[in-house]
Specification:
The complex is a heterodimer of chains A (about 240) and B (about 400).
Chain A lengths: L1 H32 L3 E12 L2 E12 L3 E8 L7 E5 L2 E6 L4 E6 L14 H5 L4 H4 E11 L2 E10 L8 E7 L5 E7 L5 E13 L2 E11 L5 E12 L10 H4 L2
Antiparallel strand pairs in A: 1-2, 1-13, 2-3, 3-4, 4-5, 5-6, 7-8, 8-9, 9-10, 10-11, 11-12, 12-13
Chain B lengths: L1 H11 L1 H40 L2 E5 H5 L14 H8 L6 E13 L7 E8 L1 H5 L8 E4 L7 E5 H7 L6 E7 L5 E12 L9 E5 H8 L7 E5 L6 H9 L7 E5 L6 H37 L1 H9 L4 H37 L1 E2 L16 E2 L5 H27 L3 H8 L1
Helix pairs in contact in B: 1-11, 2-9, 2-11, 2-12, 9-12, 10-13, 11-12
The chains are: A alpha+beta (about 240), B alpha+beta (about 400).
Chain lengths: ~240, ~400
């Protein structure tokens, strides 16, 4: 009897080890990709066929759901601000001195014509709280050893119900992602690179997102300045800041 | 002699002839009213649509392929050289660059979700082909880049008043948010709810909003008459500057490429049904007449009347009855058509569901034209031939001897 139990334990051991590994991987990925506070200056290059548009923005983030963005370039968008709080987003339009509220499914629409949605840009939720899944295996990606994960949403309120993720074994950065709709259609690919160390935290400073539904559409995001754990006043995430 | 005989025969049984003439009159009157209605329904809509879209329209070929999505990025970046080339085409009277884009419009503090359709074009386009000044419900035409004339329905929905600042929120050709603040200077009534959601702005203002500096999405080309559209399009296609562009006349593009054929079919079917039903009435009368006069025809045939003369006799009789009925029917139908032309019929909100390219008024007016009245009378005579020929042939085949026996 003891022999059978031992055999069963040995047989189940790989599965328990794999489940623990997924949890561990996601936990370390979340440690890198989520933050208490973050301040950054970003350059966003949107390419649609032969048209290229470049935006620069100053962005502040606090926790998973609070973010504030101010556009610095181009001139026609300078001063445009966005403020996200939980499931609502307000946009300040200086040309008309008005605030536009964006909520619900609109948050998953393209932000300023890019391949990122407002949620992609302004939300930093922990994957461990939103996804479960499996470690599909180990692969080599651009000469780096990675785990390939298949993640499926465990909560309904996510933008992408299924993700295939290639996580770097050395830095725990998701170097490559394929994002899928519930129907199984691939919506976007997301490449992260130029990983740098920020006081023990690894973070990619360049991202390339490609819309797989709209051919020839590509968005590159470069973090020109990036600081974590910066003290941010409550005012930054207030309507007063937005309309200042 | 045959004519006077035919007339005399028609008057022999006055009650029956009157009944037949009444049937023809009713058929012709119904047909006239129907044709006046169809002419009013389609005629004004087609005219407005051709004026709205241009007798010929030039767009980028990729824009034409995905037109329903209004892909602003598939535009004509520098439209001035193309406009100049088109103006040099013989028969072209005007060329207007245009940009159409969807926006939300609002008055007050918070930006709302009322949809509007911005039409950006030179002011001359609004004043000329579109006839906006004549349809202003209040206010005046726009005069500069900061002013707007807005459709009545949208103005009601957002609660705007003349002089208010209206905030429009659209997207540039790249998908960036594009807000604009304009002053409402005129309110226009274009006939139906969808058309009355339009916002008329200068082309320069919309070029900035859509971020298409110096460009246009469409070039609307006008000749002297909309019927010259196809000929103008053929000439314009030959221009080297228009290589890679989609050049079509208003009736070569949806929905009018189908509607024009449909319109002819509708008119044809209506005419056929009327001719068929009324022709049956004439046929019945004339057959009765042949039966009654079999012996008489026999005597006349025995006296030397030829078969072709017998046919003529009966066809003339049918034509006489139908001519009276046809003319009276055209007069009666014309009066009905005039009533429709003056009073109109309100179709309510049905027309609001039509696409923006079909600018139909919610009140549809009939249109009486000399062509309609003439064709109605001609159709009345056609009824006579349809209903009169068969009995006439039957009468002509009667043998004199058998006809005499028939009498006994």
């Amino acid at each position: 009897m003891l022999r059978y139990l031992l055999a069963l334990f040995v047989a189940l051991l790989p599965f328990t080890a794999r489940a623990a590994t997924l949890d561990e991987i996601l936990s370390k990925v979340d440690t890198n990709m989520t933050y208490d506070t973050r301040e950054t200056v970003l350059k966003m290059t949107v390419t649609k066929g032969d048209r290229v548009k470049v935006y620069r923005m100053h962005s502040y983030g606090r926790g998973a759901d609070e973010a504030a963005v101010e556009y610095l370039e181009p001139a026609r968008d300078k001063g445009t601000k966005m403020l996200k709080n939980a499931s609502d987003l307000w946009m300040w339009l200086p040309a008309v001195e008005k605030t536009q509220k964006i909520s619900g499914h609109m948050l998953r629409q393209s932000m300023m014509g890019s391949d990122m949605s407002y949620e992609d840009m302004m939300q930093a939720s922990a994957w461990r709280k939103q996804y479960g899944g499996t470690v599909v295996g180990e692969e080599t990606l651009d000469g780096r050893k990675v785990w390939k994960l298949e993640l499926k949403a465990t909560t309904p309120d996510v933008s992408y119900p299924r993700r295939l993720v290639w996580v770097d074994q050395a830095t725990y950065i998701p170097l490559k992602q394929e994002l899928y709709a519930l129907s199984g259609m691939m919506l976007k690919s997301w490449i992260m690179s130029d990983v740098k160390d920020f006081g023990g935290r690894q973070f990619p400073t360049r991202m390339v997102i490609e819309d797989k539904v709209q051919a020839g559409s590509r968005t590159e995001l470069v973090f020109e300045e990036l600081k974590f754990a910066v003290p941010l006043q409550d005012e930054v995430f207030s309507m007063r800041w937005l309309e200042r | 002699m045959l004519l006077s005989m035919a007339l005399r025969n028609a008057l022999r049984n006055r009650r029956r002839s009157l009944l037949t003439a009444s049937m023809v009159m009713l058929g012709v009157a119904c047909l006239t009213v129907a044709m006046c209605w169809i002419e009013g329904l389609f005629g004004s809509t087609i005219n407005t649509a051709a004026n709205l879209a241009g007798h010929v329209r030039v767009v980028d070929a990729d824009y034409a392929r995905r037109e329903q999505l209004n892909p602003l990025h598939e535009n004509i970046p520098d439209s001035a050289p193309l406009e100049a080339a088109l103006r040099a085409v013989p028969g072209v009277e005007a060329v207007y660059p245009r940009i159409t884009m969807g926006v939300t419009a609002t008055v007050g503090d918070e930006i709302g979700e009322e949809f509007g359709l911005v039409q950006g074009a030179p002011i001359a386009f609004f004043e000329g082909p579109l006839g906006v000044p004549g349809r202003l419900a209040s206010g005046r035409m726009l005069q500069n880049d900061d002013e707007a004339v807005i459709g009545k329905k949208l103005v009601e929905r957002i609660g705007a008043r003349l002089g208010d600042d209206v905030v429009l929120l659209g997207q540039t050709q790249d998908g960036s948010m594009s807000p604009a603040k304009v002053k409402l200077v005129g309110i226009v009534d274009l006939g139906n709810a969808l058309q009355n959601r339009q916002i008329f702005l200068t082309i320069e203002r919309v070029r900035y909003m859509a971020d298409i500096p110096g460009g246009a999405v469409e070039l609307a080309v006008y000749g002297a008459d909309r019927d010259e559209g196809q000929a103008l399009a053929a000439l314009a296609k030959g221009l080297p500057e228009l290589e890679g562009k989609d050049v079509k006349s208003w009736d070569q593009r949806p929905p009018f490429d189908n509607i024009m054929g449909l319109l002819s079919t509708v008119k044809g079917v209506a005419g056929f049904v009327m001719v068929f039903i009324t022709g049956l009435g004439v046929l019945n009368t004339m057959l009765m007449s042949v039966l009654e006069r079999t012996a008489e025809i026999g005597v006349m045939r025995a006296m030397g009347l030829r078969r072709v003369q017998v046919i003529q006799l009966f066809v003339f009789e049918a034509l006489g009855i139908s001519a009276v009925g046809g003319v009276l029917g055209a007069v009666l139908g014309g009066l009905g058509g005039l009533w429709l032309q003056v009073r109109g019929v309100n179709l309510g909100t049905i027309v609001d569901k039509l696409p923006a390219t079909v600018p139909m008024n919610s009140t549809v007016y009939g249109q009486v034209t000399p062509e309609i009245l003439l064709s109605a009378v001609l159709l009345g005579l056609t009824m006579a031939i349809v209903g009169g020929v068969v009995p006439a042939f039957r009468a002509s085949r009667i043998e004199p001897v058998e006809a005499m026996r028939h009498r006994r």
